[in-house]
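FIELD: query
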Amino acid sequence: MNALEASFRTTLIGLVAVASVGCVPQEKYNDLDLAYRSQQQQLLRTQGDLETTRANESRLRSQLAQSAGDLETLEALRKGQNVDVDKLLADYESLLKKVGNMNGGPLPAEVNAALIALAAQYPDVLQFDEKRGMIRFAADFTFDPGSVGLKASALSVLSQLATILNSNAANPFEVVVVGHTDNVPIKKSAAQNPTNMHLSAHRAIAVRDALHKDGVQASRFLIAGYGEFRPAVPNGPNGAAQNRRVDVYLMPYFVSMASGTPAADALPSGSGSGSGSGSAKAANPTKVDDEPTK
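FIELD: result
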């Protein structure tokens, strides 16, 4: 049992103990209930992180198996053909290192500091997770209600993010944009977004298009949408604002075994420059409740 599970069970036992006593101060009950819910949300987030790590490991191991097969085939032909097996061996070793370092380290210091500063400047719009190299945009502050249209304030923040992504330090990273929703069915935009899966993917594409417009190369992007199937917190009757989000991950380039060329060879040349200014100020967003923005 890890520390999080132990803490979760301790809080749950506390709630049961309080309930069994009968008459207890309401304030004490509320405190224990709040602690229980907090631990429950933390457990869900940890489970989500573990699921993502396992998926990444499975992908890398699949690439590793494919490269091993290619290596065996080419080594059998090495004596009779002009094949760059040494290069393939280097790619194979690179994959081995990636599998052995699944958790990875933080982003380069320059990129990390820039993203921390951006998140501090717009705390209602985005959050930055240093450990995972992930920027999380709150959908309620990023998109117009019931659409995939980006708000003007969000466009300003994305322009500043593009400037960071176009820096020399951030150029060696792929930009993985992943959309999520809550579990409330689509109503206002059902014609354009029949399901939450469509809405999450279309919002991820909208963020990608905005970053690309500000100079981030199209070849760096990977887009995904999970709909309501990976909630950050439990959904209530009106869903949950925390689940309506778009996450942007900065991931190292992986070796492309299909072409036999390391993805690093195809990295964008030069740092590029976004059209947005790092000093641009987004309009102060107004807090909203948990009503769905669909």
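FIELD: remark
Residues 26-77 form the longest helix (52 residues).
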